[in-house]
Amino acid sequence: DDELDRAFVARLRALVDRVTRLYDDFEFAHALQETEAFFWHDFTDTYLELAKVRARDAQGGSAIAALRLGLQVLLRLFAPVLPYITEEVWAWAFAGETGKPSIHAAPWPGAAEFAAIAAPADAACFDTAVACLAAINKGKSEGGVSVGRGVAMVTLRASAATLARLTPVVSDVMASARVERHALESAPGLADDAFEVAGIALAEAAPA
């Protein structure tokens, strides 16, 4: 399994624990708030962006499995408050493989679903990957181009601890940012998970 995928699943498991406690305490609004925040920030805006290139590759089975697990769990967490749309999506994607035609008959997500997935060496690598991708995208924006523009070369500076956390997830970051080559430099004065773009050379724009 890929380290980024394990880090995402660890965050997903922590979400299930929090939301389950909130539902048990009848804190329905807070449970929805937690689930929505995770869906938009951790799932669609970040993990999906970071893993999508690898998920398209022949060797992307770990990413696809984590993405499907994320969607399946999030649908069940949303189901009590969004019963109709979650039922529809469940029917398209998971009814056949789970043997549960209705999401409302499916079991609530729990620890057993995560038991076979190893914990990441350092779950904080997820936030480090997000911070690195944001720094590269900021560099593109400051250069007056869209975040979808390719990068021929980028040089990034960060603290030694941040660079160590980045190492196992750097390939996903660079693929997501469409970076061809990169260099990493240690900068002891930078805060944890802070990145500086020391230099960026954009790739040639695709012909119109």
Written account of the structure:
A 3-stranded mixed β-sheet has the order 2-1-3. Helix 1 runs parallel beside helix 3 (61-78), helix 2 packs antiparallel against helix 3 (61-78) and helix 2 crosses helix 8. It has helices spanning 3-24, 28-56, 61-78, 83-93, 95-98, 125-142, 160-166, 170-176; strands at residues 151-158, 179-186, 196-202. With 208 residues, the protein is mostly helical.
Q: Keyphrases for this structure?
A:
208 residues; mainly alpha; 8 helices
Rg estimate, integer Å: 19 Å
Q: Describe the strand arrangement of the main beta sheet, using strand numbers.
A: 2-1-3
Task: Please outline the major beta sheet.
Answer: 3 strands, mixed
Number of helices: 8
Low-confidence stretches: none
Order of helices and strands: HHHHHHEHHEE
Q: Calculate the terminal CA-CA distance, rounded to whole Å.
A: 39 Å
> Average pLDDT value?
94
- Percent strand equals 5-15%
Net shape: elongated
User: How many β-strand stretches?
Assistant: 3
Given helix and strand content, the structural type is mainly alpha
| Helix content estimate | 55-70%
Compact description:
This protein is mainly alpha-helical and 208 residues long. The protein is 56% helix and 11% strand.
